[in-house]
């Protein structure tokens, strides 16, 4: 009996030891379903802009990082529950989120757009979208923005961005409010996105869209936050950031991705 | 515990309960209506009749309901012919897809339950009925079904409760059922404990109602089995 108890105790202790967060050990929440920023490659490995940035930052900080994949709406709860230590998932820095978590400096910035059938002739206004079904990713800035801006529409919320696109091609949605780059590269360029396009204005109201995407950490982890900000600065200046950016985009994604989308079509 | 956030989210949960109840009632009703004839066929001694039904129940009981829901909701929508068919207005709706998947699922389980119950009928009762000159249809109507349905009742109440909990999968295909309401509240307040605890309390209350209802029905139909 005592032996069994001892075994059980050792077993439990191993969890306690694992749960302690070593300063060099970081568990980073990533999404894995948000191309081109974060997606599963054909071989099941994570690839994308967020993933490369995460790896570059870890290298810069000389930290031992584990990437943890999970749905976007579970990121902040996971962070608060200490399941993960930082979130690198294209999460925009907004006032609302700052009430629960803290953010590093931004690592990129892109606006939102309305995506629909290119020939749908929808007017992107409260009245124009009345009664229409608009897809968003749950808890994203686009969810908040669409819920507030199109109160007469039916806002349909999904766990994954990919599922929004899937249901739009299936004809279950009239449109979607999406990050401009995620839409351009993750959908419009793909086979499923044929016939779809951007409609209406660029959405970048700082009240909803914040000041760019940052790395979220718990409020108590100010040291980690500053280390992350410093690491972003470092990879910006040593060329690592530009290398990653050039791998995915042909424009400056740090300052304003939107400016780059329109001209790239005319080119 | 943040009670204010729970109170503020109550309208969400009330709508969620309605969706959950509607889904459950539709699935159980449709499932039962189809399970009755299928169960009789499944219990048939003729293998050419029993085997096809066995195939259906084996496939449905052998795969997770989530997989079935994904197949109906995302899978069928993949095909062009489906999206252009006359059925598409139905399959376009997440509610219809979820109700259909749940109904098929519960139908398979109920079929097996009824078949087992029919097979367990006392052979002496059937012999007696036949020697009285009853036709097969009359035996079915007067002897077989009344006793088989009664015997299946306790097991069926379990199936109904499992189905209630199964409807929580609907939230994955964008439906705002009870679990959907909890996820929505969680996303608004980042309070997963309060959000899912509230949903749990609602499910518990619904389960209590179901159990009480079945208890009444059992009391009415199984009274002859009680000890006196």
Give a verbal description of the structure.
The complex is a heterodimer of chains A (267) and B (228). Chain A has helices at 2-19, 49-61, 75-80, 95-98, 141-149, 161-169, 180-188, 206-209, 222-237, 240-248, 257-266; strands at 25-30, 33-34, 38-40, 46-47, 64-69, 86-92, 102-108, 112-117, 133-137, 154-158, 175-179, 196-203, 213-217. Chain A is α/β, with parallel strands linked by helices and 267 residues long. Chain A has two domains: 17-109 and 211-255, Periplasmic binding protein-like II (D-Maltodextrin-Binding Protein, domain 2), CATH 3.40.190; 112-208, D-Maltodextrin-Binding Protein, domain 2. In chain A, strands 5-1-6-13-7 form a five-stranded mixed beta sheet. Chain A has a five-stranded mixed beta sheet with strand order 10-9-11-8-12, sandwiched between helices. Chain A has a three-stranded antiparallel beta sheet with strand order 2-3-4. The longest helix of chain A has 18 residues, at 2-19. Mean pLDDT of chain A is 87; it is low at 262-267. Chain B has 228 residues and is an all-alpha fold. Chain B starts with a helix and ends in a 7-residue tail after the last helix. Chains A and B meet through helix 3, strand 10 and helix 6 of A and helix 10 of B.
Summarize the structure.
The complex is a heterodimer of chains A (267) and B (228). By secondary structure, chain A is α/β, with parallel strands linked by helices.
Task: From the structure above, extract its key features.
heterodimer, A: 267 residues, alpha/beta, D-Maltodextrin-Binding Protein, domain 2, five-stranded mixed beta sheet, 11 helices, globular, disordered C terminus, B: 228 residues, mainly alpha, MetI-like fold, 0% strand, flat
CATH architecture of the largest domain in chain A: 3-Layer(aba) Sandwich
Largest interface: A-B, 19 and 15 residues
Tell me roughly what share of residues is in helical segments of chain A.
40-55%
Q: Tell the overall outline of chain A.
A: globular
According to CATH, the fold-level topology of chain B is MetI-like fold
How many beta strands in the DSSP annotation of chain A?
Answer: 13
**Major beta-sheet overview of chain B:** none
Give the SSE order of chain B as H and E letters: HHHHHHHHHHH
Order of helices and strands of chain A: HEEEEHEHEHEEEHEHEHEHEHHH
Q: Give the tally of structural domains of chain A.
A: 2
Separation of the first and last Cα atoms of chain A: 76 Å
Specify the CATH homologous superfamily of chain B. MetI-like
Mean pLDDT of chain A: 87
- Structural class computed from helices and strand pairing of chain A: alpha/beta
Instruction: Note the total helix count of chain A.
Output: 11
Number of helices of chain B: 11
Strand order of the largest sheet of chain A: 5-1-6-13-7
Gyration radius of chain A, rounded: 20 Å
Which overall shape of chain B is indicated by the principal axes computed on the Cα atoms? flat
The CATH architecture category of chain B equals Orthogonal Bundle
> Biggest sheet of chain A: strands, sense, closure?
5 strands, mixed
